[in-house]
Design brief:
heterodimer; A: alpha+beta; 6-stranded mixed barrel; 13 helices; 18% strand; elongated; B: alpha/beta; 6-stranded mixed beta sheet; 7 helices; globular
């Protein structure tokens, strides 16, 4: 029998026992809905965690330092070690090279220094940190009061809420006011020997007037070097032009070219976490040391894969129960349609035609159950989101999405539903196909 | 309507020492016991006998609905006993047309859909189906009832619809199992006249199981009498 004829006969048979087949289909739909709801929760939580973590800037960033060339213990045990390669200095040349790598969004140093600020005539000791423009996407700035820097070179500051509380009451009143930043500037001394080589540098106290534009609750992580507690944040470009004294200044002094700028570390920000591995390899080939949280990302993926697997197994249990409904419905259909099967065989239907007819009926119930199940599962997910956000709103927390139904899940759930239905239909289909036509025709 | 032309004189169905035994509890039932017979192409044969004589068993064996315990059954020189179940299905679809005492129309289908069913099973192109259905329905004079369901037809009309369904695939052999058993005398005669017309105009071989000897003598060419699974007598109607 041709496919279209098979489909038409199956549709007719399904319509003829509409109530029973509908109830079976609803059973499958409930099973699929349970599976989709469970998986959508797993995927939603994974997306939420990935999104939050990626917005810390830790997973799409590589922390680059000069390669250490102090000999290791193992190397010292070796009686004839190969000579150590010279250390590559992390300077502006290296920074430009890093910027030229593919998929690099930004390369910037960590500038962080302890200093004193003056607000409304009172001094406060604090730590200042430079914020790169790409940090704008950091979760710390999502719920900020006020606004982000108006430009990369704006003389503006964002304060952490604890500092804002010290500066004024209510803390929000600091927005729009001026704060004076006092800092130590490094100035290179002119060469005295006439050989063009600088003889060192001096430290000069300076002041910078900044306008407070925003308040944030938590520190933006910014990168690997940014775990220290900073309380005042300024644009990175402004922080770089201040030329504040840094911890690597002493080492620079001993170099042949102390006026040439070097960095303790640079953060390389990439377009996505998936680009980290290739970039990290390239940076190591350049002769620098590179670190990333790639392994941590992989571990996170593994944890969620196992989590999704268990949610999927629990969600599938309802579908397995629903498959028993399909077997029951089709076995009942064989009993009811025994004579009809006999007539079909007498008119020329092969065993395979009868088997396929029952398979198509099972598959159709699986398809419809799958479609409705995905829809119900999606609605359950929306309800979970709705309830979660009411709860969060009562605690003055921002709205989030804890469930997600991506297209692959829609396709997989419907496919799985059809597959389970076909497996459930195997026994009834085989039983119907093997029915003896002579006996079937005698059946009243 | 035409059928694949039977060759005159050649056997349409040949049974060679056919037996069909059933086990019912501890009793062995010999439904067909060493039956040998030959039915020529274009013959109208009536299989007569009392209830349980084995005539329906023989008809089922000829249709390929059942397999013999031993012996051989040839339909146009092809041994049904050696066919796979798929081949037997094709044999039923293309070579055989069957009508039953209980009509066996599918109750939820219209007359047109019932007659079309064998064409679906035989994978006949859709474009060809409508004309084939009309032709078969015209032959049994039911054109005005195409959209009616079996429950809306009289007994005679239902049997004529079943006859149209049996003819629609243009078989060479028509097997009828008590085709008038559920009908009154007049309607039964109408069906018998139709069968004779089909036999004469299409040259179709007809094997009819019946227990009504007078009617069989009026319409069939040959009478075969069965008893206890054995062939009791076989002779032409004078």
């Amino acid at each position: 029998m041709k496919g279209r004829d098979l489909a038409e006969l199956a549709a007719r048979n399904l319509r003829e026992a509409a109530l029973r087949n509908s109830l079976t289909t609803v059973g499958i739909a409930v099973g699929v809905a349970s599976l989709v709801a469970m998986l959508s929760l797993g995927v939603g939580l994974q997306n939420l965690a990935s999104d939050r973590l990626s917005r810390t800037g830790l997973f799409d960033a590589i922390f680059v330092t000069a390669k250490p060339n102090t000999p290791s213990l193992r190397r010292m045990e070796n009686p004839s070690p190969a000579p150590l390669a010279p250390v590559r200095t992390l300077d502006d040349d290296g920074r430009h090279q890093l910027e030229a790598l593919p998929n690099v969004v930004a390369v910037y140093p960590e500038i962080r220094f302890p200093t004193e600020i003056h607000y409304a005539g009172n001094p406060y000791a604090t730590v200042v940190s430079g914020v790169a423009p790409s940090d704008r996407n950091d979760g710390a700035f999502d719920q900020m009061k006020g606004s982000f820097f108006s430009g990369p070179s704006a003389d503006e500051a964002i304060v952490q809420v604890e500092l804002a509380r010290q500066l004024a009451t209510p803390p929000e009143s600091v927005i729009g006011n001026q704060v004076i930043l006092r800092y130590a500037e490094r100035q290179a001394l002119p060469a005295e020997s006439g050989g063009g080589k600088s003889d060192g540098y001096s430290i000069v106290p300076r002041e910078e007037k900044l306008r407070i534009v925003g308040i944030i609750e938590t520190d933006p992580a910014g990168g690997f070097g940014a775990f220290g507690r900073a309380r005042l944040f300024i644009p990175l470009k402004v922080a770089e032009t201040l030329r504040t004294a840094q911890t690597n200044d002493l080492r620079d002094l001993l170099r042949d070219t102390p006026s040439k700028r070097t960095y303790d570390s640079l953060t390389v920000r990439l377009t996505g976490a998936s680009k980290v591995k290739d970039a990290e390899d390239s940076i190591k080939q350049m002769g620098f040391a590179a670190y990333s949280l790639l392994d941590a990302t992989r571990s996170l993926g593994l944890v969620f894969a196992v989590f999704d697997l268990f949610l999927g197994i629990f969600g599938s249990l309802a579908l397995v129960v629903a498959s028993l409904g399909i077997i029951n419905t089709l076995v009942m259909a064989i009993l009811e349609r025994r004579r009809e099967i006999g007539i079909l065989k007498a008119l020329g239907a092969a065993d395979g035609d009868v088997r396929r007819l029952f398979f198509v009926e099972a598959g159709a119930m699986g398809l419809l159950g799958g479609i409705f199940g995905v829809l119900i599962g999606w609605l359950i997910g929306r309800a979970i989101n709705f309830g979660t956000n009411i709860y969060l709103a009562r605690r003055d927390l921002p709205a989030i999405s804890v469930t997600a139904v991506p297209w692959w899940m829609v396709a997989a759930a419907i496919g799985f539903s059809i597959a389970v239905s076909l497996v459930a239909g195997m026994y009834p289909a085989s039983r119907a196909a093997k029915l003896d036509p002579v006996q079937a025709l005698r059946y009243e | 309507m035409t059928t694949s032309a039977p060759i005159p004189g050649q056997a349409a169905i040949r049974l060679q020492q056919v037996t069909r035994h059933y086990q019912m509890g501890e009793t062995l039932v010999r439904a067909a016991d060493n039956v040998t017979l030959s039915i020529g192409a274009g013959e109208f044969v009536a299989l007569l006998g009392s209830s349980g004589s084995g005539k329906s068993t023989l008809l089922n064996l000829m249709a390929g609905l059942d397999r013999p315990t031993s012996g051989a059954i040839f339909a146009h020189d092809r041994n049904l006993a050696e066919m796979s179940s798929e081949e037997l299905a094709k044999h039923r679809s293309h070579t055989i047309g069957i009508v039953f005492q209980a009509f066996n129309l599918l109750p939820r289908m219209t007359l047109e859909e019932n007659v079309e069913l064998p064409l679906r099973l035989a994978e006949v192109e859709r474009s060809e189906r409508t004309s084939r259905v009309r032709e078969a329905v015209d032959r049994v004079r039911l054109s005005a009832r195409l959209t009616h369901r079996p429950s809306e037809l009289s007994g005679g009309e239902q049997q004529r619809a079943a006859l149209a369904r049996a003819l629609v695939n243009k078989p060479t052999i028509l097997l009828a199992d008590e085709p008038t058993g559920n009908l009154d005398s007049a309607t039964g005669d109408e069906i018998m006249l139709l069968l004779r017309e089909i036999n004469e105009t299409l040259g179709m071989t007809i094997v009819m199981v019946t227990h009504e000897q007078p009617r069989a003598e009026r319409f069939a060419h040959r009478l075969i009498l069965m008893g206890d699974g054995k062939l009791v007598s076989d002779g032409s109607v004078s």
